[in-house]
């Protein structure tokens, strides 16, 4: 029944567009790994997809998506703290050399996080429109478990980043898989508040989401490694 109602929502232009961008992001990431396209492909994917979301938001005057862009970029910039912790404190995350950087991360990383948080969070928010919030939180957690680790796996062959000195399945650490489910868990709740308000909550909630990314990595690493 839920699946049927979600299919009916695909008739809504905003819903259809966000889901199409998620599919495109996954396909392009897979192709980047298959053909070993290097860091430039990650840069192009992150900025290109963020630009595509921004184009739709402004061309359609889509207030909700505009607010999500602010949320996403705030979370992505704050997440730079998590990257520095992963690199400097755990010694498990390695970025490829000779690419444009910001702090410890590739320059495109805030945009990459913004795109994924918007896309996956949007799916969770859709579920929350049909089901109780706790159902949406659980569903979005499992979407995070399933989707984001795909990018972690493809990143090594794509030439974006890789991991060392930790327990892994294929190219993805177990603690990263756990953390990225946790990272996605509260996004439907955040999106619900953002949808109901004008331009008020998206910036502080984005910062909280970025801090939760770091906390999720910290908790997962301590539990598994």
Can you give keywords for this protein?
single chain; 225 residues; mainly alpha; two-stranded antiparallel sheet; globular
Report on the biggest sheet. Answer: 2 strands, antiparallel
The share of residues in helices is over 70%
In N-to-C order, the SSE pattern is: HHHHHEEEHHEEEHHH
How are the strands of the biggest sheet laid out side by side?
Answer: 1-4
Span between termini: 40 Å
Low-confidence stretches: none
Number of helices: 10
Write the layout of secondary structure elements.
Blueprint: H1 2-9, H2 13-34, H3 39-59, H4 63-78, H5 80-90, E1 93-95, E2 101-102, E3 105-106, H6 109-128, H7 133-158, E4 161-163, E5 168-169, E6 172-173, H8 174-185, H9 187-196, H10 202-224
Antiparallel strand pairs: 1-4, 2-3, 5-6
Write structural notes for this entry.
This protein is mostly helical. The protein has one domain (11-224). The protein is 75% helix and 6% strand. The protein has helices spanning 2-9, 13-34, 39-59, 63-78, 80-90, 109-128, 133-158, 174-185, 187-196, 202-224; strands at 93-95, 101-102, 105-106, 161-163, 168-169, 172-173. Strands 1-4 form a two-stranded antiparallel sheet. Strands 2-3 form a two-stranded antiparallel sheet. The chain has a two-stranded antiparallel ribbon with strand order 5-6. A hairpin with a 2-residue loop joins strand 5 and strand 6 (172-173). Helix 4 packs across helix 10 (202-224) and helix 6 (109-128) packs antiparallel against helix 7 (133-158). The longest helix has 26 residues, at 133-158. The chain is globular, with a radius of gyration of 17 Å.
């Amino acid at each position: 029944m839920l699946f049927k109602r979600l299919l009916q929502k695909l008739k809504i232009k905003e819903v259809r567009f966000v889901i199409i961008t998620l599919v495109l992001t996954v396909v392009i990431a897979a192709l980047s790994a298959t053909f070993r396209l290097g860091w430039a492909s990650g840069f192009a994917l992150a900025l290109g997809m963020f630009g595509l979301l921004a184009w739709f938001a402004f061309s359609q005057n889509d207030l909700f998506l505009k607010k999500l862009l602010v949320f996403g970029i705030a979370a992505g910039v704050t997440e730079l703290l998590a990257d520095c912790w992963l690199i400097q404190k755990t010694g498990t995350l390695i970025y490829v050399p000779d690419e444009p950087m910001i702090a410890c991360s590739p320059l495109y990383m805030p945009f990459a996080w913004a795109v994924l948080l918007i896309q996956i969070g949007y799916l969770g928010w859709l579920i929350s429109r049909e089901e109780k919030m706790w159902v949406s939180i659980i569903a979005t957690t499992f979407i995070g478990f399933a989707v984001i680790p795909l990018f972690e796996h493809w990143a090594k062959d794509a030439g974006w980043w890789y991991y060392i000195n930790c327990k892994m399945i294929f190219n993805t650490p177990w603690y990263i898989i756990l953390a990225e489910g946790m990272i996605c868990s509260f996004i439907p709740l955040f999106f619900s508040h953002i949808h109901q308000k004008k331009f008020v909550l998206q910036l502080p909630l984005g910062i909280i989401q970025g801090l939760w990314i770091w906390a999720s990595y910290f908790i997962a690493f301590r539990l598994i490694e």
